[in-house]
Amino acid sequence: MKKSIKKQIFIISLTMITHTAMAEDPVIGLKECIKKGLENNLNVHRAEYERLSAREAVVQTESRYEPSVSLSASRTDQKTSGTSALYGSENEMYTIELGVNKRFSATGGSLGLSWANEKTDTDSAFMSTFNPFYDSSLSLTYSQPLLKNFVGRNDKLTLENIGIYEQIANLSYIYNMNGLVYLVENAYYDLVFAVKNLDIKKASLDRSKRLLNINRKKMKDGLMEEVDVIATEAAVTIQGAAIMLAEDSVKTAKENLRRIIGIAPGSACDFMIDINTDFEHTDVELDVVYGKALANRADLGIMELNIEAGKLDEKIRRNEKLPELRLDTSYSLADTSEDLSGNYDTIAAGDYPTWYAGLTLNLFPLSRKTKSALKQARYANNLNAAELEDKKDQIRVECAQALRNFNTYAKYVIAATRSLELQRRKLHLEELKFNQGRSSIQWVLNYQDDLSNSEVEYYRALTDYFKAQSRLVNVIGAEAI
Q1: In angstroms, what CA-CA distances link 145 with 61, 157, 328, 359?
Q2: What's the pLDDT tens digit per position in 43-83?
């Protein structure tokens, strides 16, 4: 009984905890936003499917060189006629054949092994052999190209080429992930600024409201003019309107971030607003940034791999211009007797071997198609090489701009931090003067606005700095995960 009560209490407690957890909206920070974006983003999913598809393309190409097994069985009925019924005949033939074939990428040749058995029944009155009789053979064949695809040149190049396209798909996947991380970080810091801006405006409104209450008391006691109270009320009114605009900016920033990371509108989710105010900055040289970009940029790597694939394709096209010269060889053992066992014994003893070797030459006097394909491959390679150099120049400009923005915003943060400290000090001193009757309310209100604007500029500078840092990382091409 006690155990049952404890069990019920445990279930009730667990249910209450679960409902409480479900009642609260999940709160996610920047890392969780990036993780969700990678899980939900359509472009990342598309790149992942393309990467998996490229892997399967490699498997399919490699599978061309796997051994294949064939089995065939057939029956043939044949009736023949002569000058009279005596010379007519009816034949029945049963055939079973087993074959194994294998292509070799290392040589370009193909090897075949076949085992055939045939049984023939006839009612011919002039049959001079066994009836029924069995015909069996074991054959080994090998075909080797000697010009086009000699020693498997095109087979090897094709395998190498398909491997390059798999690498391209992998880099495309990384490129899309890095691009998504950059978008998420920018949207997140836009949200951080919008929230901080709203908090600052709320704090400014609270200061103005407190000041308005103080001023109303002073006016009631005859210590302040009505115009000063009106000025404070006007400040409270405009600040209230500014809060509505700031709240709208927060909603817009949240919607934008939700869209990027793939959270449906209306889903129970909120964001943890966090930004590192312990500012530390280290200047970086352009040559260092550019060198890292050349080594890490996925889009640049894709272009370089495309050039490499193009060169391989050009080699394939050049080889395909050659005539097709093929060496065909075979070795077979066969026998015909009244039973299969006799055939097997003869074949196993190798009594009646048959050798064959022959050359087959196919010429293409014009070869317009292969020549045109070769020229097309060369044009594509020249275009890719020119685009690669242009891309390197573009990357250098991107690095210079991103690094300049990064260093500039660092100075901006330093200046904004100093300005914020001065504005706080200035307002504090002015409030002391106002309390001593040595200043007007207008100066206090102006200095409060200056402080609010300075706080806004500080968080604008800080978020812009981290966005510039994110852009620099993206320009360098560092991997997202």
Answers
A1: 20, 16, 9, 10
A2: 899 999 999 999 999 999 999 999 999 999 999 887 776 55
